[in-house]
Every structure is written in structure tokens, then in C-alpha cells.
Amino acid sequence: EVQLVESGGGLVQPGGSLRLSCSASGFTFSSYAMHWVRQAPGKGLEYVSAISSNGGSTYYADSVKGRFTISRDNSKNTLYLQMSSLRAEDTAVYYCVKGNSGSYDYWGQGTLVTVSS
Amino acid sequence: QSALTQPASVSGSPGQSITISCTGTSSDVGGYKYVSWYQHHPGKAPQLMIYEVSNRPSGVSNRFSGSKSGNTASLTISGLQAEDEADYYCSSYTSSSTYVFGTGTKVTVL
User: Fold this and answer.
1) In contact, A13 and A117? CB cutoff 8 Å
2) Which has the closest alpha carbon to B92: B53, B57, B55, B54?
3) Interface contact A50, partner B, CB < 8 A
4) CB of B13 within 8 Å of any CB in chain A?
5) Which distant-in-sequence residues (6+ apart) come within 8 Å of A98 by Cβ?
6) Does position B22 have pLDDT exceeding 80, yes or no?
7) pLDDT per residue over A36-68, tens digit each?
8) Which of A47, A102, A108 is opposite residue B45, by nearest beta carbon?
């Protein structure tokens, strides 16, 4: 059974930093691209970032480019999202998502990030 | 990257069919086969319903079907059931090598 478990969310002040982690199990982690998707309160889903299976290629939405860094450790089956220079508009539930055939076939339950003073 | 355009809400009676549209551009929906659809019940993780325009993952009811014409993709739910009441999002690969979601559609079963 595929499982994706996010951690690291919480309350952070504007301008602060936070690192999210996603522990994956139930599939060959090193064979798949992985993504982060977020949903702000009362808003729709928003693509945040993606990383290729070997970590060699990374992609970002314009809204987070230069502030967020995606990475992965295939030896630990773990995906990361390092977030810095956080803004109030980054407040959202962040989902760790497994990629497959240009879609997101498995989602974690999400972790809430709140940026507020 | 601008969000794909979906109707804010669609409703139907049990047993009816409804269709949700998803309009983009030739740089996303119109240019690639990687269009997918997601069902999202608030408080739960989204679920993949359709991938590559019209393919259903194992375990998804055949009442859900997808299609695409030009820059517009569509999701049809036939034989509408109470459990289908949820938010639905489309997504597409883009020419920037990223992905973009639709604005979301709230489906109400009357």
C-alpha cells in the first residue's frame, strides 16, 4: 500500500523558514517524480514544485521560485521542501504527491503551514 | 502560469449526467495528453479520477469519463450519486515543464 506522510508544518513568522518532509513507502520511491501541491484556506489546489526521480531536475511555480527548494533522499525514501522568506500568502495545507504518467496518483494527508506574526 | 478555467459550480439530480469543462491554452491543455482530473472531499486527500485525458485508474467508477477538444478538456459524471458531491479539479502539464491546476468546480447533488 502506497503511503505518503508529511511532517514539519506549523506556525512561522513572516520572513521565516520551515522544512517539510515526506516519508514514502509502498512503492519504489527512486523510480518516480515527486511533487508538492498546496491549498490555501478557502482556495483551490496550486502546483508548488516537482523533482525528477533521480533528483537531477527540479521545477517550481513562479510564486515560490527563488524562495523554496525541493530535494529528495532516495536512500531514505524521503522528499523535502525547504521554504524560506515565507509570506502570509504561503499559508496552506501542503500535500506530498507521487507523480505518474503526467498525473498525481497518490497524495499524502497534508501538513498545515501557517505564516503569521 | 494562469490557472485553467473551470465553472465555479455544477449541479444535478441523482441519476443525471453532468459535465465539467476545463479551458486552457495551446501551451497546456491543448498541447499535451497529460490532462488529469481530481475529486476532493474537504478535509481528505484529493483522489485521481482521470489521467492522460481519458484513462481511469483502477478502482475508479466507469461513471467517470474524460475527453478533450482543442484547448478544453471535460469530465463527465454519469448516473450522478450523492457520494459524487465534492470539489473537482483539472490539471495539465505545461510548456514550462510545470503543471497547472484548474480553478475548481463544486459539484452539488440536488
Assistant:
1) yes
2) B53
3) yes
4) no
5) A2, A4, A24, A27, A32, A34, A35, A104, A105, A106, A107
6) yes
7) 999 999 999 999 999 999 999 999 999 999 999
8) A108
Asked if B46 lies within 8 A of A95 by C-beta distance, the reply is yes
Residue (of B63, B65, B39, B70) closest to B53 by Cα position: B65
Report yes or no: B42 and B34 within 8 Å, Cβ to Cβ. no
The three cell numbers locating residue B44: 481528505
CA distance A76 to A23: 8
CA distance B14 to chain A (A): 26
The answer to whether the Cβ–Cβ distance between B46 and A50 falls below 8 Å is no
Q: How does residue A85 score in pLDDT terms, banded at 50, 70 and 90?
A: very high
Q: Is A35 on the interface with B (CB under 8 A)?
A: yes
- How sure is the predictor about A101, in pLDDT bands with cuts at 50, 70 and 90? confident
Measure CB to CB from residue B45 to each of A95, A101, A103 and give the nearest one. A95
| CA A62, A101, A25, B84 torsion-angle sign | positive
Mean pLDDT confidence for A72-88: 98
Under 8 Å CB pairs connecting chains A and B tally to: 67
Instruction: Point out which residues pair with B104 in neighbouring strands.
Output: none
pLDDT tens sequence across B46-57 = 999 999 999 999
Residue A7 burial by Cβ neighbours in a 10 Å radius (0-12, 13-18, 19+): middle
pLDDT attached to residue B1: 77
